[in-house]
Amino acid sequence: MALRRDTITPIKQINFQTVRFWLFTALLVAAPLSKYPSVATPLYNFTSFRIGLYPVLSLLFVLVSLPSLLKSILKLYEQSKTALISSCLLALVCLLGLITALYKSRSTLLVASVLLLLSLLISAWWYVAYELPTSKYKLLLKAVLIAGCVYGVVGLLQFVLAGFGHETFGLLCKNCGAQIFGFPRVNGFAAEPQFFANAMMIYFFVGLGAFYKTRSGLALSSTVLSLLAIGLTFSRGAFLAVGLSTILFFALLRLQDQVRLKTLAKHFAVLIAACLVISALFVGAASYRYRGTPDIAYKTFRSMVQQASVGLIKLPASKSETGDFTPAGFIEASGQERLDAANLSLKAWSYNGYTRLFGVGTGNLGPFVVKNISPSAPNNLTVYIFYVLLLSELGLIGAGAFVVLHVSILKSYIKRFWRHKYTAIYTGLFCLGVAFLIQYFFFGSYINVPYIWLWFGILIGSKPLLRRKAVKAL
User: Fold this and answer.
1) Does the N-terminal peptide bond of residue 10 adopt cis geometry, omega within 30 degrees of 0?
2) Which member of 116, 245, 355, 445 has the lowest number of beta carbons within 10 Å of its beta carbon?
3) What confidence tier does 168 reach under pLDDT thresholds 50, 70, 90?
4) According to the model, what pLDDT value does residue 42 have?
C-alpha cells in the first residue's frame, strides 16, 4: 500500500537562531567554569589538557554561527578593518609557528586553542552586531546579573567552609589553603583564584553599569556579591584591575554628567565597606583557625597589607614573633619566580632575527628554552605575564597584532566619547575590557580565559548598536 505524500510528517528543522541564542546565553553566564566541569584527557604528556564545558560551548557557538558569519564577512570588514585584519594576522603567525615547533603535538593543541579564541571573538562580534534581537537584551542582562549573584554566593560559601571548617569538596586548588596566608583563597570552579577573580570581573562591571542605568536591587546585589568573590580570591592583579577600572568608570560617568559627585561618593563608600567586610572575613578566618597563636589578628592584617601591596607597605612586627602562622618570604619567592620565567622568555624572543619577528611558536616556549637557553628550565615553562608570553611565542608581529586588535576595539568607545552620551552599561563594558587588559599583566594563559575573547567580541559588535540607538532597549 503506497503512502500519500501529504500524510508524511516532515522532520522539524533545527532553528539555528534559537540554538545560537541559548549557546550565547550559556557563554555569558558560565564564564567562571574555566576548569570544572571538565574531563581530564592527558595527551602527548600535555597533562594540563582538559575537555571542559566552556570550551565545548564555545566551539558549538562558533560552529553554528560560521555559515551565517561567512555571509556577513564583508560587513564585518567594513565595520572594522583593523580588527579583522589583526585577527587574521594573529592566526597566521600562530600557524606559522607550527613549522618550527619542537613539540608539535603540544603546539598543535595550543594553536587550535588560539584559533578557537579568535573564532569566538569574531562570532560574538557578528552575532551581537547583526543577529541578536534587541528584545532579548533585558533577558540576557538579567541572566548575567543572576549569575553574578550565584557565583558570589558560591565564593562566599567556599570561603566559609574552607576557612572555618575543613570541607573543600575537592574544588580548592593546591596552594589555596590557609597554610600560606592564614585564610583560604577561593577559586570557585576555576583552576586558580586569579582565573575566578578575572571571570567575576564580568559580573561586577556589568552589574555596576546596570545599577547606574536601572538602580535595580538585582544589579546592586550582583555588583556587591561579585566584588566579595573577587576580594576572597586575594588576587592582587585582580585588585589592581578592578580598582583602576572602577575609578575609570566613575570618572567617565562624571565627565558625561551622568551622575552627581554626591552620589558617586555614596556609592564608592559602599564599595569601600564591602572591602572592609572582606578584610574582616580574612582576619576572622585566620583568627579562628590559628586561635592559639599570639597576636594572630594583627599578624594576619599585617600579612594582608604586605602581600596586597607587593611588599611596598610594611607594618611593624607584633610583639610576638613565634607561632604557627608565619607566611614570611612568600612575596619574594613568588615575585622572583615570575621574574625568572619572564627573563627566560625574553631571552628566547631575542634569540635571533626570526624569533624577534615571529617568536618561537605557540606552545613551543618551554622546549625552545630547554634546548637553546637553559637545559634546567621546565619543559612546560609558564610565563605569568601574558604580554611577555605573546612576545616570546608570536614575536613582534603576533604580539603587535594582538595589541592592535584590542586597542582598536576600545578605541571606538573613546573616539565617540565626546559626541555620544553612552549608557552606563556600555561604559561598564568598556571598563571591563580595560580591566581584562590590566589583568593580563598578572597571568599568562590561552586556555583558561575564552570568555575574555567573547566579551571583546561583544564590545566591538556593540558599535552598530550604538548607531541604531538600540542600546536604549536596556
Assistant:
1) no
2) 116
3) low
4) 62
**Cα–Cα distance measured from residue 30 to residue 132, given in angstroms and rounded to the nearest whole number:** 19
Contact criterion met (CB below 8 Å) for 389 and 397 = no
- Using CB atoms within 10 Å of the CB of residue 425, give its burial: 0 to 12 exposed, 13 to 18 middle, 19+ buried: buried
Q: Which residue has the cell 556600555?
A: 426
CA distance 434 to 407: 10
What is the band of 107 on the pLDDT scale with cuts at 50, 70, 90? confident
Output the CA torsion sign for 271, 272, 277, 283: positive
147, three cell numbers: 549569575
The C-alpha cell that represents 376 in the structure block: 634546567
Paired with 429 in beta bridges are none
pLDDT reported for residue 334:
55
Helices and strands, counts by H and E, the chain:
18, 2
The continuous run of DSSP H or E covering 40 comes out as: strand 38-40
CA atoms of 370 and 296, how far apart (whole Å): 44
Three-state SS letters, the chain? CCCCHHHCCCCCCCCHHHHHHHHHHHHHHCCCCCCCCEEECCECCECCCEEEHHHHHHHHHHHHHHHHHHHCHHHHHHHCHHHHHHHHHHHHHHHHHHHHCCCHHHHHHHHHHHHHHHHHHHHHHHHHHHCCCHHHHHHHHHHHHHHHHHHHHHHHHHHHHHHCCCCCCCCCCCCCCHHHHCCCCCCCCCCCHHHHHHHHHHHHHHHHHHHHHHCCHHHHHHHHHHHHHHHHHCCHHHHHHHHHHHHHHHHHHHHCCCCCHHHHHHHHHHHHHHHHHHHHHHHHHHHHHCCCCCCHHHHHHHHHHHHHCCCCCCCCCCCCCCCCCCCCCHHHHHHHHHHHHHHHHHHHHCCCHHHHHHCCCCCCHHHHHHHHCCCCCCCCCCCCCHHHHHHHHHHHHHHHHHHHHHHHHHHHHHHHCCCCCCCHHHHHHHHHHHHHHHHCCCCCCCCCCHHHHHHHHHHHHHHHHHHCCHHHHC
Tens-digit pLDDT profile for residues 239-251: 999 999 999 999 8
Q: Mean pLDDT across the stretch 337-360?
A: 87
Task: Give the model's pLDDT for residue 173.
Answer: 73
* Distance separating alpha carbons of residues 329 and 81, to the nearest angstrom: 49
Mean pLDDT of the residues in the chain: 82
- CB distance 402 to 359 below 8 Å: no
12 by DSSP, 3-state: which?
coil
